[in-house]
Amino acid sequence: MKTLLKLIFVLAIALIVYGYYINNAASGTGEKFIGSGVLIFAFVLMPLFIYHRYKDKDLRNYSFKDFSNPPKKKEEQD
What we know:
The protein is about 65% helix and about 0% strand. The protein has 3 helices and no strands.
């Protein structure tokens, strides 16, 4: 998974850099490469990265709610 994330990161950065290079050459088609690089970064790389980092972790440690003692309903308290 690390290798895939690194590969996608390099691909997105390469597309963005290539797009800027093409734009400076006054061709005008570099915006498509920049846009596709940003879209890959935002909609492919970031969700995969977040999934990879939070996989197999107990997220209850990062919550303000106390899940060990759930609040009782009013009917049960009487």
